[in-house]
Design brief:
Layout lengths: L1 H10 L3 E6 L16 H8 L2 H4 L4 E2 L9 E6 L2 H8 L17
Antiparallel strand pairs: 1-3, 2-3
């Protein structure tokens, strides 16, 4: 039963909103050993969810804090980040605009 439940969990699409603090990088592995959003996410989620393949819909610079959408849904990542999707994007220096 546990294996069946884990398979269902992995097959489902999950999305979380994550407040990225300054000093944390938006990358899966950092060659300089800095903390990543994925380290923080794995620490915050229950074990079955933390083991899933999470991806950020966009990124924030190391010294920037703000909201990130993290998901296991590759289609959502593609829709939000691919230029052909024409999704609104927040960009700016010192203040984001949409």
């Amino acid at each position: 039963m546990l294996l069946h439940s884990l398979a269902l969990l992995a097959a489902a699409r999950h999305t979380v909103l994550f407040h990225k603090p300054a000093g944390v990088v938006t990358t899966h592995a950092d060659e300089l050993g800095r903390p990543t959003v994925y380290d923080a996410l794995r620490a915050a989620l229950p074990a079955p969810l933390s083991a899933l393949a999470w991806h950020a819909c966009g990124r924030l610079d190391q010294n920037t804090s703000g909201l990130l959408v993290l998901t296991t849904d590759g289609g959502l990542v593609h829709h939000v980040t691919h230029p052909s999707a024409s999704s609104p994007r927040a960009r700016g220096s010192g203040g984001a605009t949409v």
